[in-house]
Amino acid sequence: MEKEFKMKYFQSIYERYHRASKRLKGKILDEFCKVCGYRRKYAIAKLNGAAVEERQYRRQTVAKQRHRPTIYSDQTINILGKVWEAANYPCSTRLKSILRLWLPWIEKHFQPTAEIKEQLLNISPRQMDRRLQRQKLKAKRRIYGGTKPGTLLKHQIPIKTDHWDVKEAGFTEIDTVSHSGNSAAGLFAYSVNQTDILTGWVETRAVLGKGEKEVSRAIEEMEQYFPFKILGLDADNGGEFINYHLQRICERKKIQFTRGRPYKKDDNAHIEQKNWTHVRKIFGWSRYDTQKAVNAMNDLYRNELRLFMNLFLPSTKLLTKKRIGSQTRRRYDEPRTPLDRFIIAGQGTPAKIEQLKLLRTQLDPFQLSKIIDEKIERIFKLANFRQSPKSAEDEEKSFAITRVPQLSRSEAEVFSQIEKILRIPVTMAGSHG
């Protein structure tokens, strides 16, 4: 009876308390404390806690009433995640274009129903970001690189500072990406990366060291793989490009040879972006310093990777950039693959265009992605791990190994007692080398 009385009384007090003015609340609290025997602070907390619980209950009730029905099934999101992973983690805007382009192969690999296909084609980029948020947190990678400027022939090679507003395929930017790991000493591999400004077509080759002859030989080889004639070559100020050897090649082939300003990476913004998507994102920051590793990288560059990137992965191009107050608003064009941009440009021969179209229909992007992953795993085993950055797990293992020196039994007991007292690991001086 007493418990029931307290419950009924509490409900009446609760309603009066939260309707009362600030002055009356004090009198109600005095009455509440006398009847129930509560201390004043406890009584305030109890009444306010009940208010919080009531608000939470109301919010949950409203949320249930406003709950929207599930539009995208788990199977749809599962397929979306696999396509995103196979396409090398593109942004949601590009992923939407990839879903349309890859639909024939999605039907082949996953056999989706008509409803799932409709969901895949109708899902918005913003909804993709929400649904793939957890997977994106696991897919973050680091960027590592470095180059040194050269000084030879700078006065003979003109600087190009204007924006690349080209209407013709064949004007390219070129750069090298180092695979030196933690140390830039000795001989190690470089990736020579070249991209077309209009179409975004990319060709890459690996060389051991960046001697002018090796780099020039890689550039001449890549020229044969572009589906159009190379008309321009814009490089940074590195010695691997600013040399007589490459200058004579460009003069003989009537290629416009220009360079950017020293220490101004914005002059080569197109190739800097491709350095990440086509090299660093794939091989990371490990050190490769053997000819066997270079040959394995070139096997990937010449075959599956170039076909996958140029035929199946759309990219966007910046159309306008406008400053409004403290914000910068950018507008991009529709995502298209380098092959599609080449077809739209209409500068290739019909036979060459039809050959590339036929090649795209004969290839399977999911199979290409699988082969690329397998080759990357084999290439990774050829890295020089002693001079490559370690993961957090490897650092913890190495620390655990070096933390415990060779101690006598009495010394080990003393260190054990000190660790228990201080509650921190204790090592001998010089135990880390």
Strand content is 5-15%
| Percent range of helical residues | 40-55%
Structural class: alpha/beta
Shape: elongated
In CATH, what is the homologous superfamily of the largest domain? Ribonuclease H-like superfamily/Ribonuclease H
CATH architecture of the largest domain: 2-Layer Sandwich
Task: Give the terminus-to-terminus CA distance.
Answer: 76 Å
Overall number of domains: 4
Number of extended strands: 7
**How would you sum up the major sheet?**
5 strands, mixed
Order of helices and strands: HHHHHHHHHEEEHEHEHHEEHHHHH
What gyration radius follows from the Cα positions, in whole Å? 32 Å
Mean pLDDT: 81
Number of helices: 18
- Biggest sheet strand line-up: 3-2-1-4-5
Question: CATH topology of the largest domain, what is it called?
Answer: Nucleotidyltransferase, domain 5
The CATH class assignment of the largest domain is Alpha Beta
